Amino acid sequence: MHRPAQRQRQRLTRVLVGAAAAPVILFAAACSGDDSGSGSDGGKKDSADKPSASASKGSGGEAATVEKAAYGKLPEPCKTLSKKTLDGLVPSAKDKAGKTGTSEDVSTRGNCTWESLEDNGVDGSQFRWLRVSLNRFESDQSLGSGAKRAQANFAKQVADAQAVKGAKSVKTTPVPGTGDQATLVSYDVTKGKETFKQQTLVTRVENAVVTVDYNGAGLAGDEQPNAADLGKATQKAAKEAAASVVAANKAGGAATSDKPKGDAEDPADDGAKSDAKDKPKAGDGKGSALDGAKHKS
């Protein structure tokens, strides 16, 4: 009679022990799950956040870096060529000082033209026309570096010269040894009854673009000029004009900003002396034209 009661007590004891042990196991499992879960999620979040943060900093740093423009000024367009060069290209020009074109900002663009007509009476005439154009590009956060902007302008001007309406026998020739890039575009163009031999040389020096347009014609039955000779003369002029851009930026800018305050007046004095030397020719009419362009800008 005692055995059934004893077996019943043993079964009850096993149930109570099992019931008491279950919460311990569940609690331990729950704690283990929370720790591993939160640690895993946190790790994922940290790993996901960190690269994006570093990437944004990197992209921000790259966007903020724009190469500084090499040249900060342009020479006066009508003073880019020497008297000797002008005597060769436009020998019968009435005004060797040239005619300055209007510009809203002479620090970034400008041009000068010369015209020569050698009248030989009944034997005809030789006509020559010359223009030097200068363009300078600043570095810009949204537009890019001055050099890259100049490269784009260089390509555009070459393309424009190649696509002139009415141009015949168009020839494009790379010109080594002139600036950082140089291309000569030659063609014939008819105006009225006369045919003109046109030469357009575009060259880039750092963030500046120099374009020399030169054409010639034999009028009233005179012999036509040789295109190859005109091309050589154009190359000489372009090389000289490009060198004048480089020279204009060597004679001032960096020296005045880098020197101590006590030396700051010297470059200014030198600049004044240089202006005084240049003014006699400009005073014949050239100077006032340039002053007018400055006032308009």
Descriptors for this entry?
disordered C terminus; alpha+beta; single chain; 7-stranded antiparallel beta sheet; 297 residues
Description:
This protein is α+β, with helices and mostly antiparallel strands. The protein is 50% helix and 23% strand. Strands 1-2-3-7-6-5-4 form a seven-stranded antiparallel β-sheet. The N and C termini lie far apart (123 Å).
Report the structural category.
Answer: alpha+beta
Round the Cα radius of gyration to an integer and report it.
Answer: 39 Å
Major sheet: arrangement of strands: 1-2-3-7-6-5-4
Summed up, the helix count is: 6
**SSE order, one letter for each helix or strand:** HHEEEHEEEEHHH
Mean residue pLDDT: 75
Number of strands: 7
Terminus-to-terminus distance: 123 Å
- Helix percent reads 40-55%
Largest sheet: 7 strands, antiparallel
Low-pLDDT residue intervals, each spanning 5 or more residues: 15-61, 253-297
Q: What is the general shape? A: globular
Strand content: 15-25%
